[in-house]
């Protein structure tokens, strides 16, 4: 965010600050992942993951839209994932890889061919998404829908007196830049959830690890390879102070890249086996292969060999490919090796030797891959710790940070750093850093600007983030124009520009003018009004935010209703499972005809559950309940019969 | 010329020699200023971190102290506070982390310790200067005022005594000429008139006093007396007194009453002026009043015998 402000004078500050915190409502911690998201909360000083209505501890970060006679429908999480194969163009996954990025970015251009949905440039050049029926959505909006879903998951667990949840701590990859962080923060805003803090994922994981009193203090390295991003952070944990020494990473390296690699391998193999038959254009087929590739990758973390088996991929063709762990390792080695350089740079930035690192934490689903574990072990010369769950640590850490902010947890403080250098363009497109990377945040630097020619009334400042020496290789954060500078000889005006990075890693720029207006000007004696104009600002405009907010409130009732259906479906599923168990237990004593009858009931109900979950038909809860009651009564009858039989036998 | 030379020397002393501080030095100075503004003039980086051993503290101790302080001051601890308290906390923490950076960086700490030992220069509008090299504007002005007043006073004294001597010599010379080379006044006790080379006329009285004839008529006689010159000017003649008085007259004096800076000097040797007898006013004798036919009134000339 860019703040326009002009502080004419600096007031001396009092040394006493009121330290009576206003009691905040429960603050939830959300790990907004590329492929999966999780939500956690701290209750009685213990962080725990909250399960979604399907009983899962993580929720797929997938949002699907559909448009039919009944109107627009939005699915989030597992229901969206379930219908991905039939609606690939409108099922948006891994959108975190797009958030806060420009359409022209190399990473986006590379991804264009690998995904079944459409990426379009927005009016400000940002990468946006487009549905098959022409509705355009920003990646921030998708993030917002996922955050809202996680909020609902949390609300289902909390007692009435703590509702509604208004505040959250959301995690981002440590190596995210200003616009990516800003876009993530906006996601919450879009659904009316205030994101109190944006925490770096590896830092959050370290927090979840270090809060445990059983762990001893020391230097911890967090190796976080998730669905879309790679981060490495080195922290010093010391009596509740978590000080990040250095961080590094790659915001476009993760499980998705492994999937794409495997997907292309399968496609190529299929093409070779079928005389050059290309199914790339068949979006449904590609989506099925993608899902199979992900499944295969996960399986290979546990077994040495697996088979990809997709029947009827196109007309009468099937896919049946055997693949071993070694083959996958070899195929993905160049991706794995991409993690080595950032790790080395991070250790160097932290001013440490490898032997100084006391513990290595692995975070992110990809770190389950044995080859990656081996590479990490070789890198650090140490077996990685198994103290944290790679899928859950980040959300737990976010919840802990939330509790710190709400005052629930004291004596814990996170001292995080900015991952990228912040600087300005100087003569000839040279990048001149003002705040070096790995500076503790919040941080502020003041730079005094002046004019280069006599009578100049404006100065333009271009702010960049990155490590390269030419600005064109770094990310443009904003364009500031200082205008209304009082006319004077060159070099005489003194305009102090403050560059500030807050605890979220988000950049603020403000200007203070130190030169008064000269006596012979009509403005003499007035407060100097050098102003900052910002252009090239990224993200959503205020109107866009308002429109989305309006839409989301309008959808709220619809969503609440849809949730009711899902809840019924889940309840029905539990009863079905109970019935299954009953048949297993008493089946031997039942008549075949009785078992078939119950089986029929089960099949009918399961079909309805599936209808509701995929959003095809929303069966009324009454119908479902009638059906369930019928089945339960019938089942009860049979079980009573069985009981009678058993009694007779006992006699 | 002499004065200009002296002045340039004075300015040479007054104008500060700006030391070439590095960018890092400037950052240390401004941080030090802000911390002192916030927490009191005696605060040092070490005292803020509660390191009693000051510059002898080890890096490990500094890190420990910095973290301890961070735990107290981190903005997270103020998440529920008012907007202003949050802002203050954030700014204070920003300073704390800079202090942490400086004291934990070997070369930056060396710079800080140098200034810690030798004292910090202070901000003087355009840069950091050591105070002893640069007096303030008002002080400089005051010093200049004293120096100018001193010079002026000395010059005034010299001028006065020169004038005294010159007039005394002139008087002697004129007397001598008027009395025909003798020092004895003429026996007849008459005034002697003398026309000097430059066309001025002097009158020498028999008692030896010399008068300057101002104008053409003989009756405007100005006494020529060296004792009229005050060869020992006092405080009220000096600029030390006159400048403030003039300033007063120009400003507040307009309303509160001006101070008269004219100095009146009484010739100590002057004999009391002989009391001039007041001329009895002659009552004008008016002639006969005649009223003219046109209404005008005229008087006839008195004492005129037709």
UniProtKB/TrEMBL annotation, chain A:
Belongs to the heat shock protein 70 family. It comes from Suhomyces tanzawaensis NRRL Y-17324. This is Nuclear-encoded mitochondrial protein member of the heat shock protein 70 family. Pfam families: HSP70. GO terms for cellular component: mitochondrial matrix. NCBIfam families: PRK00290.1. PROSITE patterns: HSP70_1 (PS00297), HSP70_2 (PS00329), HSP70_3 (PS01036). The keyword Nucleotide-binding applies. InterPro entries: ATPase_NBD, Heat_shock_70_CS, HSP70_peptide-bd_sf, Hsp_70_fam. SUPFAM superfamilies: Actin-like ATPase domain, Heat shock protein 70kD (HSP70), peptide-binding domain. Keywords: ATP-binding, Nucleotide-binding, Stress response. One of its GO terms (biological process) is intracellular iron ion homeostasis. One of its GO terms (molecular function) is ATP-dependent protein folding chaperone. The keyword Chaperone does not apply.
From TrEMBL, chain B:
The chain crosses the membrane at residues 137-156. Residues 269-306 are annotated as: Disordered. It is found in: Endomembrane system. Residues 278-287 have a biased composition (Basic residues). It is a single-pass membrane protein. Gene3D superfamilies: DnaJ domain. This is DnaJ-domain-containing protein. One of its GO terms (cellular component) is endomembrane system. Residues 1-19 form the signal peptide. The keyword Transmembrane helix applies. Keywords: Membrane, Signal, Transmembrane, Transmembrane helix. The keyword Ubl conjugation does not apply. It comes from Suhomyces tanzawaensis NRRL Y-17324. Residues 44-116 form the J domain.
